[in-house]
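Usage example:
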Amino acid sequence: MSDSHKTGPLKIAVAGLGTVGAGVLKLLERQADLIEQRCGRRIEVVAVSARSRGKDRGVDLSTAEWYDDPVALAAHPGVDVVVELIGGSEGPAKETVELALERGRHVVTANKALLAHHGTALAAKAEAAGLAIGFEAAVAGGIPIIKGLREGLAGNRVSEVHGILNGTCNYILTEMRTTGRDFADVLADAQKLGYAEADPSFDIDGVDAAHKLAILTSVAFGTPVDFKSVHVEGIRHVSAVDFDYADALGYRIKLLGIARRTDHGIEQRVHPCMVPKAAPIAAVDGVFNAVIAQGDFVDRVLFVGRGAGEGPTASAVVADLIDIARGRSTPTFGVPAAQLSEAQPSPMEARRGSYYVRLMVVDRPGVIADVAAAMRDQNVSMEQFLQRGRAPGEAVPVVLTTHDTEEAAMQRALATIADKESVVEPPRMIRIEQF
Amino acid sequence: MSDSHKTGPLKIAVAGLGTVGAGVLKLLERQADLIEQRCGRRIEVVAVSARSRGKDRGVDLSTAEWYDDPVALAAHPGVDVVVELIGGSEGPAKETVELALERGRHVVTANKALLAHHGTALAAKAEAAGLAIGFEAAVAGGIPIIKGLREGLAGNRVSEVHGILNGTCNYILTEMRTTGRDFADVLADAQKLGYAEADPSFDIDGVDAAHKLAILTSVAFGTPVDFKSVHVEGIRHVSAVDFDYADALGYRIKLLGIARRTDHGIEQRVHPCMVPKAAPIAAVDGVFNAVIAQGDFVDRVLFVGRGAGEGPTASAVVADLIDIARGRSTPTFGVPAAQLSEAQPSPMEARRGSYYVRLMVVDRPGVIADVAAAMRDQNVSMEQFLQRGRAPGEAVPVVLTTHDTEEAAMQRALATIADKESVVEPPRMIRIEQF
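Running the assembly step on the lines above writes:
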């Protein structure tokens, strides 16, 4: 560690004063005495940077030096820590972090995209200089999951970590289930309520969850961050009827990030899942996030909390600041960057498990026999078949579930089924996870 | 900190080789390389102590020096950390820990009784010497709740912490609910299965949960450990019929530890509670533990995991050892012992909330009127009243719930009711908590 573990105040510079940045300043202001007790020193904001200076953020910025340029802020003299809350994997966020490390400042960031894309390189850079990168806020908001995994479960070999990593998707799925409304309808509402962005793609297409999963995987397994190997599917194709069928079959639908050590290597995937209603994660609704880790000694540990928002994210950022103020250090991903062990990614085709499939088919004799034959030809064993209601000659939804099978076989069966003339829409598939 | 943060191995002495002690040695042996990666150094067991030397514990003790006397072990030269896994608030456990601190060794312990009774004094002693006391294993087994609260939520003012802190009680209550069997019957089974001790009183009378709660309270609120102020009730009086009524009323029955800042001071209580079925804690069944913390910025965070057992407890002990090996230090209860702020305990009589009351009354006209009058005389407002089945002239159970009221008023009403001739058994009351 550098010289940060001393008795003077910890001097920080904050780049980015959006919701989270303002929250961090409010927290530091409101809990100054508490934080001093817990750190043994004060935390002092000496410089800030944001796009618009005039905006009222409800915090006193008069004692901090203002920078229009975050990269210039990273070079502000006498700063111990640069807090990067700009966001984005490239551009000013990356430049700010890199310059901060070059100048010998610790970094605290909420930027999952940055770490998903450049985490390993940044960790190596930081560790070579004896600096910390705190990123508790980058995954699952206020839940202390990075600390929990990296330190709390440090005695365990972790075999699996999975969770609800995107509050926007979980909110949408929860609303769809409880109101019976359609995806587009609920999304529009979520946008009005501020739970979804104007351009919601990052969230609903699973990219945000995939960024977080790639980081979690690295912390859990001690491997370099490998975002490009994450299989990503979002929730656009989850339909209102899927919730009815899921309910009838005893499941809930969740967008999960799952990382698992398998015989084929490390599996990383984000996609909608059906999980048994009794699984603890099935009960985590609305904007809440949850992470479950499976360690060889501790068994399963579940963490639940708010995955976003001003207060929870500020709480995580400040926890990292307090660690730095106290001189508590840990290698970025739990083991030193140079010791992260490259691991083979397991291809999605190797996934084993069961499947839920929804088809729109013309309601006439022989159609199901065709579907069943396509499954049989790929050695996929059907477990259940459901057709609710009849409409001879018209398109009706039919649903089936399979026994455990391989993704590759399932995909081949689905391709054959999609080609059938009586199958009038692309088949929709949701993987079933038996936690 | 003392000289423990160096590059040689961390040398530890383990006092007590029961289930947990053996688990710790197994973990250290099996994950030696992993731990070295995470600590930057090895952890070496240089001395051990237990009552019987001959016993096969499934671990290699050949390289560790044997002590019959744990107190002598604490004085073994060249030890960095003494791991105390003997148990008990007095006697050898206390002497071992005290001598270890006097000799400049860090302490790691799973001993909740010791910390509940002597935590503040031991913390002061440790901190004066620049030593750590790690006690993650003392509360909620494998769940990293001490780290989560003390570091992960360090930026928050915590207003409440509550949880399922005793796996034995939770197992018994879960079995009673799912099988409809009686307390005594389920307890006998739990004893056979090893989930309950031959003398189960410590668990089922709530003392163990109260020890853990007193520690959690101190960490959450930065107050000296105040075990004597914990109001403690166990689960002996929870009856099979209570589960039927709870179910009908929309509740689950859990033994909870609850610590809350109120206008009257700090409330600490352990007793059976009815919690709404939809509350996340209601779904935590069997031997699992759960802790929920409410922070002003992070809002609610829930932690769930195994509260006892060889693996989970060893996981927690080793996490503390890794912290010490890495030189990560935190004041014992989050803020330095000298700065723990004395807080007024809130008397149990000041508890506000609603109540479930079960009475055995003679089934004849006027009895309910008497009960209702006793409640009215204390300004206790009844919400529901349930009498299932009739047996004129004989004793029948009747159940009622109240609106929010004060414990003191409720107790007076219950005392009056108990005195009625037609009330043939002591009234049983379970507090309702609306989380």
